[in-house]
Write a structure and sequence with these properties.
heterodimer, A: about 375 residues, 6-stranded mixed beta barrel, 12 strands, elongated, B: about 110 residues, 3-stranded antiparallel β-sheet, 4 helices, about 50% helix, about 20% strand
Chain lengths: ~375, ~110
């Protein structure tokens, strides 16, 4: 418990400096008064006696300063002594020293790791234009339950009925691992199937070439284009600018690389790094046969929705319009949709989330744990 | 009145310890007692007393307590600690040896060398 004792001594020394001045002043006053008392008894007037006593004492400030120096120097000396003592102890017990350094390093390391993980995953906004205006939709069922995925026709209907609140809306198919084959070498990559509005809604710019256009991907199998993620372009193509126009195979289908997404952008979930973006129309190559009719099938619910709120609108002001759209779509297609309402939520770093946002709870839990580890490490040092 | 002498550097501490060893005193009282027991032969700069007192307290040779003087003034009274008493004995012995040696040296006559 040497550290505690030391902190106490240091604070006491600082407080003492204030107390020291006051006490010295009082002591000197009392000295001069007593001298004046004696002088007065020898026949001087009180005023004359006090003046003479003050002169006899000499410069009080100078002596006070001397006292302060005595106090100050010994404080510095004791600090130096403690440091020397600590170093000597550490040298004498190399095993203990190693254990101390190791526990502290572990404790600090765990904390740094936790904080950087949470910083990048949860607290940093997506590197897109005005990320706070981005929202995600989910449907609340009549019998409870919540779903973040929609069929393509429903997505189109909702989009058409909410143009007053959203400046843009995009559909994204869940993340998938696809096989890419470049120059005869094959490897799996993480891809997103996105509609033509995806990059426009997010406000992402190309680092090279172009991105998927709003006119693309409207018909099955049309526009076999591929946009590369920036870090994948760096890793797999060494940042080669001549990659645009190159033809590669995805699951055996030939696609043309048309561009690279802007640096730092890695999809709508910050903990994943999407390596390639394809049009929705190319979904047939992912699982042939199953998704051939996704454009018209209201039962094929596999698209997440990202929308951008119009400038100046808040989520709460957007709600009434969404309620109307939800009622209309579910009344029109009662077999496919039994929605009570549509929920709109900020697009968090984890992407669309069902239910209450767990990030604050999870973050609090893990940061508390990391803090406890550090505390434990410190307590071990004390013993 | 005896002729006055400035005290030697380093001797003030010893004088204070001696003065206080005869009973607890405040700073002004210490001054008076040193003047009195030296037959007014030793002159001490009044203010210089306090840094010395402060140092002795920090070294644990004196302890100080606030009290009331004979004239009803609040004053800080100093008294010897056990360590202070021990130091006084040591320094007194040392001083006596030194003084005796100095006296012998200074009184040496040519025929004794």
């Amino acid at each position: 418990m040497k550290i505690l004792a030391y902190a106490r001594a240091a604070s006491r020394a600082l407080l003492n400096r204030v107390g020291l001045n006051r006490e010295l002043d009082e002591e000197i006053r009392s000295h001069i008064a007593m001298h004046a008392d004696d002088l007065e008894r020898s026949g001087l007037s009180r005023a004359a006696a006090e003046r003479q006593a003050r002169i006899a004492f000499g410069g009080g400030e100078r002596f006070k300063e001397e006292c302060r120096e005595v106090a100050g120097i010994s404080f510095v000396e004791s600090v130096a002594q403690d440091v020397r003592f600590a170093l000597r102890l550490l040298r004498k017990n190399p095993a203990l020293t190693a254990a101390v350094i190791l526990t502290l390093a572990l404790g600090i390391g765990v904390n740094v790791a936790m904080f950087s993980v949470f910083d990048s995953f949860l607290f940093r906004m997506l590197p897109v234009q005005n990320p706070s205006h981005l929202v995600t939709l989910s449907a609340i069922g009549k019998k409870g339950g919540e779903s973040t995925v929609f069929s393509y026709p429903d997505f189109q209907d909702i989009k058409n009925q909410t143009t007053s609140i959203f400046s843009g809306m995009a559909a994204i198919a869940e993340n998938t691992a696809d096989g890419i084959s470049v120059n005869g070498r094959a490897e799996p990559i993480l891809t997103n199937y996105v509609d033509g509005n995806y990059f426009g809604v997010l406000g992402v710019r190309p680092a090279l070439g172009r991105l998927i256009l709003p006119t693309e991907g409207k018909a099955l199998g049309a526009n076999p284009v591929l946009v590369l993620g920036y870090s994948y372009w760096q890793a797999a193509f060494a940042g080669d600018p001549n990659v645009v126009g190159k033809r590669v195979a995805i699951n055996g289908h030939v696609v043309t690389i048309v561009g690279v997404a802007q640096k730092g952008f890695q999809g709508t979930r910050s903990f994943l790094d999407v390596q390639g973006y394809l049009t929705l129309a190319m979904m047939a190559i992912d699982s042939p046969g199953q998704d051939s009719n996704f454009i018209s099938d209201r039962e094929a619910k596999r698209f997440e929705v990202v929308a951008r709120l119009r400038r100046g609108l808040t989520i709460s002001r957007a709600r009434p319009v969404l309620d109307v759209a939800a009622t209309r779509v579910s009344e029109q297609y009662p077999a496919a949709n039994r929605w009570s309402r549509l929920q709109v939520a900020e697009l968090g770093a984890l992407g669309p989330i069902v239910g209450p946002n767990p990030i604050p709870i999870v973050a609090a839990l893990f940061l508390t744990l990391a803090g406890l580890v550090l505390l434990l490490a410190c307590l071990l040092e004390y013993r | 009145m005896a002729p006055q002498a400035q005290i030697l550097p380093g001797t003030l501490d010893l004088l204070i310890l001696k003065a206080v060893s005869l009973g607890a005193l405040h700073g002004y009282g210490i001054l008076l007692r040193i003047e009195q027991i030296s037959g007014r032969a030793l002159l001490i700069e009044q203010g210089a007393l306090y840094p010395a007192l402060f140092r002795l307290v920090r070294q644990g040779l004196l302890k100080a307590n606030w009290g009331t003087s004979e004239n009803n003034r609040r004053a800080k009274f100093y008294e010897l600690t056990a360590a202070g008493r021990k130091r006084l004995h040591e320094e007194t012995d040392g001083w006596n040896r030194l003084a005796a040696a100095m006296k012998t040296v200074l009184s040496a006559q040519p025929e004794e060398v």
